[in-house]
Amino acid sequence: MLTPIHRKFKFLLLVFLCAYIFIPNLLVSTSRYKADPDQTECRKTGAQDPSNRIHFPRPTDRNSTIKKIKLTDTGALVDRCDWTDALLELTRVDEPQVVILYIHGWKHNAEEGDTDLENFRSFVSEVASDEERQVVGIYVGWDAATNIGPLENLTFWSTKATADRISQSAIISKLIGAIDNIRDRKGGKRDQVVLIGHSFGARILFSATSQILLHSLQSAYPNVASEERTSSGRRKIVYRELEGPADQIILLNPAFEASIYTALDSVKRVRKERFRRDQQPILVTISTTNDFATKLFFPLGQWVGLLRRPAQLTSIGNFSDYFTHSLTKDESCSKVHEKVDFWADSYCNSKIHLSRTDDEQRNNPFLVVSTNKYVLDGHNGIWNKDFRAWLQNFIQESETNKIN
Question: In degrees, to the nearest 5, what angle opens at C-alpha 276 toward C-alphas 329 and 354?
Answer without folding.
Answer: 0
